[in-house]
Every structure is written in structure tokens, then in C-alpha cells.
Amino acid sequence: MDSSAPPRRITIVDVARHARVSTTAVSKVLRNAYGTSPAMRAKVQAAITELGYRPHAGARAMRGQTYTIGVMLPDLRNPFFPDILDGLTDHLRDTGYQVLLGPSHCNGEEAEAKVTEAMIDRGMDGLILVAPIAPRTHLEQIARLVPTVVVGRHGHSTAYDTVADDDTTGAKLVVDHLAGLGHRHIAHIEHHETNPTRLAEMPNAIRAEGYRAAMRAHGLEPDVVSTSYTREGGYLGAQQILTRPRRPSAIFAGADIVAIGVLEALTEAGLAVPAGISVAGYDNTNFAALGPISLTSVDQAGHHIGATAARLLLDRIADRTRPTAQVKLSPTLVVRRSTAGPPA
Amino acid sequence: MDSSAPPRRITIVDVARHARVSTTAVSKVLRNAYGTSPAMRAKVQAAITELGYRPHAGARAMRGQTYTIGVMLPDLRNPFFPDILDGLTDHLRDTGYQVLLGPSHCNGEEAEAKVTEAMIDRGMDGLILVAPIAPRTHLEQIARLVPTVVVGRHGHSTAYDTVADDDTTGAKLVVDHLAGLGHRHIAHIEHHETNPTRLAEMPNAIRAEGYRAAMRAHGLEPDVVSTSYTREGGYLGAQQILTRPRRPSAIFAGADIVAIGVLEALTEAGLAVPAGISVAGYDNTNFAALGPISLTSVDQAGHHIGATAARLLLDRIADRTRPTAQVKLSPTLVVRRSTAGPPA
DNA sequence: GTGAAAGCGCTAACAA
DNA sequence: TTGTTAGCGCTTTCAC
Question: Residue A56's closest CA among B59, B320, B8?
């Protein structure tokens, strides 16, 4: 039983006393605020180091900033999101801002709202919402309370910044590539979207729409299977596709995690890739590159997306009145061994 | 430009005024504290709902609890950790506690310390540290400041509770299974551990040691390859194993994510599983179960581990003086199609 | 350039 | 049972 009462926390008062200055001075040094002489800064810094002082975020929250940024990721099992997070944290390293993640909100709109509220209530200085499903009015309401960047969702707003990849082009890249290889029957597995108001903004819906448009542009018949952007979704989607009377010669999975499930279903069905059927994914996660999978995939540069979101957020925290920015990144296609011409 | 200034936040004072009671009364109702009549509770609840009041966690942090639990996960790309997180959040749902995640600390001890400090500074009521790499003295120091549960790390402490799976037994289950199938040369891929003080506590080290002991018990020669508990680690480890003058007939990967990389390397090398070589993993993540992978794996019930950690933490938050608990869960082996007798 | 003092929203003694 | 009030640790006017 180490029940020695926890030692009282070092506060700004202790530091001030130790450095023989006022608490105001310490506060100013902490925030690099105007009006501190080099001599005082040195004294205060020394006291801080000596005492091992760390500011109490709760107390800061009451008056100023908490130097905390909240990030909401939709699904920890999708390997694309860690890519975004890496970009975020890389950009935020050494800025003094701390990132905290809200647990994934796969559970729906209500769970998502709870997480964002929790972040706001905890005085976060800014929010990064990755592919949120909340209605746009709700996002704007959030953005009015706290600087917000919405990632991976289309639709402009004057309340928040956005970073997204051009999913229409991404889908077109895949269809063009496959059609160019001679495929005529290309199936697409999408993440099923029921809510009509979201339909126009969610990346999954736009990819599906881009796929349809690109198919028609090639004079081909779209063939969409609706499951989800999960491994299971890919697995079940592919199984469904394999029951088609006329089997497609290529499958465009809406996300790499979906493609993984697709590849599993194909292996199980004894279909060789790409000899028997071609497969392409989206996100170019590290899964696509390594090993025998060697998946053709659309690269939307998750790391760059994350870094851009972080930059925009810091910008906005510094100046809440600047006009909002909408960054749309151009995806590229990384062709690997999972796609080839259709079987003879 | 929606530059309408954000509306002033509703505070406890607003609620009190609206309900025609004191702020104390509101505070008590919020915390289900002793000494509130049903009539007052109703009045206050009504006012809270009507005004849409939500407590300010920063202000709470200054006096009492923040109803926030910080969770540190080591690696978001390892599918086992979401399993633990699911268990945690399931248990914490409707308790009024909010979970926030610290970004993964793959970057080492210093990064990990920064995350835990950040969580403490933000007034978290409790911490759940999953497979932390900090020295034990540091963990105890943390635990003295805030209720802490350490997950997936061995070694008892009187300062924090622990939840871990019996990794020695887990490794033995795999070796016994493979040896029972007739394998004599079983290789193991471990997560390389350099720090000698950690060696005795980290699950990866214990799995490797358990493997060695079990091998010797069967009169077999251990063969350990040191990489990391990542997909790349598995891929590279397997490649290394395949260059052995005498190739093992089975590979025991220290984690499912490692096994995934192993399977990729084997596929690439044209080796069939299990006809050419057997593969077993650890964690029984959902990757193991679905599809053609069908990986034999040790089930350490991640969901249950998470739920147990949450329970212990709530317990400790309620009573910081109770003796610490050490929960050791017994793993089981889930045999699937990736293991069979050695090739003739 | 520096410091005294007010107050952020909440909780917990204590008083009524 | 209910209310008054004193802070928690910090930031921020506003004097000096």
C-alpha cells in the first residue's frame, strides 16, 4: 500500500515564489507573451525546470487555451486512418499542442455527437473531424463554438475548413485504368449510405457516383454492391459478386480495407488475382504495397491530408475570422500487380 | 462569414437561476450527491434539459472529477488493440465517463511519457495504459497521482492494478499444438526487446521465453527471429526464416499482425499453408477468423481484457485505498486451418 | 517591464 | 434540505 498521499501539484505560484517574480510574469513566459525581459525569462525557465512545473490544463481552460486538439476518427480498424493521424501528429509535434483522440463512432450519429460534445466540454482548442456523419448544420454549430477542420467530406462551409481528396477523379482513375486494360464488366463495392442529406457529401457516395459516371463514359454498365467500408464488407460483397450469372472481370473496392476482404473471398473461391479477376482498392494504405497483395490502389496521401488538416487548424486557431479554406487534393493511381487484362 | 460571436456558454449559474435554486443544488443534482429532494431534482433536471446545459470539464477539473478516462494504446495498426478498446468502451458506456485516447507511442519511451503527462495535466480521473514501455518506477509514480490500470504487462505493483493474459501458457499452447502435430522445427518471431529491465515484464518477451521453455520441454531446439510486432516485422522475419539452411516446418508468430506479414512472405515464396508450412498467431483478432487466412491463434479475449480493465479502474476511482488487483486471464488456443502436420 | 487583483465555472465546507 | 461562500490554478486587464 503506497498510500502516501499524492504530493500537492506544483503551481504557477510555486514557480513565481521560487523565481522571485509575480505569477503574471510566469504566465507570460509560459505563453511567450509580450512584455518579458530576457533576464526574467531565464529566471522563470530555470524555476520551471527545477520544480518540474507543468501547467494544469483545466485551470487554463477556464481562461485561455488548453493546447489540446481533439481528433475524431471513424474506425480504428481501417488502416487508412492511422495514416491521417500520423500526418497530423507529425505536423503538430513541437507545436506545444497535444492530440487526443475520441473513440471511433462507428455506432452512429448519436455516439459521434457525444464524442464531439465531450471534446468541446473539455475545452479543446480545435477539432479535427474525420469523415463525420453528422448533418452539416450540426457541423456548423460545432465550428461556431470551436475551430474545426472537417476531413474527407465534401461540401463547402463558411464555418469550417475542409480537406478532402477528389473522389470523383479517384474513382475515374480506377475505371479508366481497368477499362484501358480491356475490362467491360467492372463491379464496385461501396459503403452503403442511407441518409439522403449526407449522400452528396460523403466520400463513399462520391466514389460510387464517380464510378458510375466513369463507367457510363466508357459505355459500360455500372454494377454496384452495397456493403460497408470494412474487411467484412469486402468479403461479403465479393461473395455476392461471385454469385452473379455473368461474373465481373474486375472489382473496384471503395477502400483498401474492403479490397483485403475481397481478396480473401476470391482466394477462398479459388480465383487467382489478377489472372482470374482484377482487384483495385482506394487509399493506398501500407497494406497495398507490401507483399504478395501488391494492390493497385488510389493514393490519396493520408499523411499529407493529416498534415494539411493540422496546418489549417493551427491557422484558424490563430485567426478565427479568416475565410474558410477548402483544400481538395488530387489523388493518383498506383498500379501494382492486382490488376491486369481480363481473362481470355 | 458566420462571424457571429459564439454564444456564451450556459453555466451552472444560468441553470440555478432558471430553476430558482442555488448553484449548490444544481451541482448536487449533477453529481447525484446526498441531500436533494425529488422535487428539486426534477426542477433542476428540467432546467438543464431546457437550457441544454453541459458541465465544463475544465472547471470541474479544478475541484473534483472530469469524468474522463485516458487510454494509451501502443499501436493503432495492430488490430488487437481495437478489441481491447471495444471492451473498454462497452463497459464504460452509460457510466458517465468519457474515454479519450492518447496517440500511439510507437515512438518510444519519451513520447509515451509525454502522452501520460498530458493526460494527467488534463485532469483525467483514471488512466489505462496498454503495454506501456516505461520503467516500472515511472508507472508507479503515475499511479500515485491518478488511478491507473496497466494492461498486458506482467509484474505486480502495489500502486496500480494489472490485467494481463498468461503469455507463458499461451506460448506453450501453440508449441504443444504444433509439436503434437509432429513438428520438430518450429520457429518463433518475437518483438525485439533491448531494455533488460523491461524484459521480465513485457508480454512479447514472456511469449518468447514461454516458447523457449515449451520447446525445451519437448526436447526441441528453439529458433527465434527478432523483428517487431508489426506486419513488416512478420514479413521480414519470415523472409529471414526462409533463408535457413534447414527450413522450419512451422512458424509461431508472436501476434496476429505478425502472422499476416508471415503469410504474405510465404505466399510470395510460393509456400502453401499449411501444406508446405504451418503458421500460428497470437491474439485471435478478427483477422484470424475470417476468410481463407483461417489462422490458428491464441485467444486472449481482448474484449474481456478491456472490460476488466475498465471495471478495475472504476473500482479504484471509487476507492483509491483498496489493495491492488492482478488479473491474469487464461488464454485458449483456437485451432484453424493454418496449422497441420509437417510436410512428409 | 512588472505585478496586484479580479474572475473563469465548478465543488465542498459550512451555515441556516 | 437548501443556500452562502471560499477557493481550485490560471490568464488578463490595468495600474505602476
Answer: B59
> For an interface test with B, which of A67, A71, A77, A232 has the most B Cβ atoms less than 10 Å from its Cβ?
A77
Q: How far apart are CA B142 and CA B121, in angstroms?
A: 11
Start-to-end Cα distance in chain B: 74
Residue B94, domain member (yes or no): yes
pLDDT of residue B245: 94
Do B175 and B292 share a domain, yes or no? yes
DSSP state letters, B304-323: HHHHHHHHHHHHHHH-TTSP
> A152 and A234 share a domain?
no
Q: pLDDT of A268-300, one tens digit each?
A: 999 999 999 999 999 999 989 887 889 999 999
- For chains A and B, what is the number of CB pairs under 8 angstroms? 162
Pairing of strands B223-227, B278-282: unpaired
| Nearest CA among B260, B264, B208 for reference residue B231 | B260
Of the candidates A88, A133, A331, A106, which has an alpha carbon nearest to the alpha carbon of residue A229? A106
Do residues B96 and B126 share a domain?
yes
Helix (H, G, I), strand (E, B) or coil at A3: coil
Task: Write the CATH number for B194.
Answer: 3.40.50.2300
- Domains identified in chain B, total number: 3
- On whether both A189 and A245 belong to a single domain, the answer is yes
This prediction has a pTM of 0.94
Q: Which three cell numbers stand for residue B327?
A: 488479473
Question: What are all long-range contacts of A3-11, with beta carbons under 8 Å and residues at least 24 apart?
Answer: A3/B320, A3/B321, A4/B144, A6/B144, A6/B145, A9/A56, A10/A51, A10/A52, A10/A53, A10/A54, A11/A53, A11/A56
Average pLDDT over residues B282-301: 92
Nearest nucleotide by C1' position to the A27 CA atom:
D11
Each residue's pLDDT tens digit, B132-176: 999 999 999 999 999 999 999 998 899 999 999 999 999 999 999
pLDDT for B172-193, tens place per residue?
999 999 999 999 999 999 999 8
| Averaged pLDDT, B83-108 | 91
Q: How many residues does chain A have?
A: 344
In this prediction, the residues of chain A whose per-residue pLDDT falls under 50 are 1-3
Identify the CA nearest to B266 among candidates A271, A263, A296, A292: A292
State the Cα torsion A125-A151-A136-A192 to the nearest 10°: -140
Judge whether A41 lies within some domain: yes
CB contact under 8 A, A100 and B99: no
Does B224 lie in the same domain as B143? no
Q: How far apart are CA A261 and CA B291, in angstroms?
A: 8
Domain shared by A153 and A202, yes or no: no
Residue of A nearest to B53 (CA): A121
| Contact criterion met (CB below 8 Å) for B341 and B186 | no
Please report, for the domain that includes residue B42, its CATH number.
1.10.260.40
Do A158 and A205 lie in a common domain? no
Domain of A80, in residue numbers: 65-165+302-329
| Residue B5 confidence class, pLDDT cut points 50, 70, 90 | low
In this structure, is residue B336 part of a structural domain?
no
Q: Is A168 helix (H, G, I), strand (E, B) or coil?
A: helix
- State whether A78 and A182 are in the same domain: no
Within a domain: residue B236?
A: yes
C1’ C10 / CA B25, Å: 12
Closest among A31, A52, A29 to A41, alpha carbons compared: A29
pLDDT at residue B291 in the model: 78
Show the CA angle centred on residue B277, arms to residues B274 and B278, nearest 5°. 60
Distance B44 CA to D3 C1' (A): 15
